[in-house]
Structure formats: C-alpha cells, structure tokens
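Sequence, please.
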C-alpha cells in the first residue's frame, strides 16, 4: 500500500477516535462493545474506555509517521517487545 493511502487510512481512524473521545467526555458516558459506563457510576471503566481510544490515536500517529519515513515501524517494535504476538507470522 502506498504511504499516502496508509497515512490517510490511519488519519481517518485517528480522527474517528478523537471524535469519539470528545463525544464521550462531553456526554459523560462511554460505550465499548456493548458495555456502557458513565463517569458518575463507573469512573474507572469510563477512564479505561477513553484511554484505549487515546491509545488508538497514538498508534495512528505512529503509523502516519512511519508511512512518511519519520519513524520506525511501530508494529514491528510491538512484536519484538511481545514475542507471543508474532506467533504464526513470518519474522523479518
């Protein structure tokens, strides 16, 4: 896939996550895979959902930087740090 397409795809995913985070914080309620948490009833669950969306934004930024050659491959670095995730895949 060309670098521009990769950057565009991850840019859209990052923007969607940012929109979701903004919407969750404004409403005070977050939903993930059918599980809804409000900040008043379950603040830890709410923070976990928002933090995971924030991690998606960070991953999207890392992939965009990698697409333009400004950073190393974040997926390869994660696979190197956590070798059990690379099972079944060809190592480079």
């Amino acid at each position: 896939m060309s670098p521009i397409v990769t950057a565009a795809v991850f840019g859209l995913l990052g923007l969607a996550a940012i929109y979701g985070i903004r919407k969750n914080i404004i409403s005070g309620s977050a939903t993930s895979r059918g599980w809804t948490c409000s900040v008043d009833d379950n603040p830890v669950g709410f923070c976990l959902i928002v933090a995971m969306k924030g991690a998606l934004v960070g991953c999207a930024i890392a992939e965009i930087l990698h697409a333009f050659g400004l950073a190393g491959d974040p997926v390869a670095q994660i696979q190197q740090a956590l070798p059990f995730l690379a099972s079944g895949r060809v190592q480079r």
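The chain has a mean pLDDT of 89.
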